[in-house]
Amino acid sequence: MYFGNAAFFIQKFDGRLIEFRLLKLLKKKITTIFLGSEIRSISLGKDLADKNNFMHFVKLFQDSKSMELEVKKLCYSADMHADTIFNNENDQISYFY
């Protein structure tokens, strides 16, 4: 079970992709529980707020390409390997499929 963006290895490198692949090779189940900002896309949040013409706190933040890349990596590795993903779909707009 993984909370937030925590990992046993270095997650910033690949968003836990190698770690999750290894666990799957060992026939282990993976559950991820995302807590908030580690998975929230500032860029997608701004686009959603602009599209729906409302003020959202993400508009106060600067976009960071490196942070967006980390969010994308976390989403990808969870999408590809997690058996269960817990996330608040209304508050944490992200790159899950």
User: What strand order characterises the main sheet?
Assistant: 1-2-3
Write down how many β-strands occur, each being a DSSP E stretch of 2 or more residues: 3
Radius of gyration over alpha carbons?
14 Å
Shape from CA axes?
elongated
Largest sheet: 3 strands, parallel
Order of helices and strands: EHHEHHE
Q: Count the helices. How many?
A: 4
Number of domains: 1
Strand percentage, roughly? 5-15%
- N-C termini distance: 20 Å
Give the averaged pLDDT, no decimals.
83
Report on this structure.
41% of the residues lie in helices and 8% in strands. It has 97 residues and is mainly α. It has one domain. Strands 1-2-3 form a three-stranded parallel sheet, with no helix packed on it. The protein is elongated. The model has no long low-confidence stretch (mean pLDDT 83).
Question: Could you give the topology of this structure?
Answer:
Elements: E1 2-3, H1 11-14, H2 17-25, E2 31-33, H3 42-51, H4 65-81, E3 84-86
Parallel strand pairs: 1-2, 2-3
Keywords:
97 residues, mainly alpha, three-stranded parallel beta sheet, 3 strands
Structure described in brief:
The protein has about 100 residues and is mainly α. It has 4 helices and 3 strands, in the order βααβααβ.
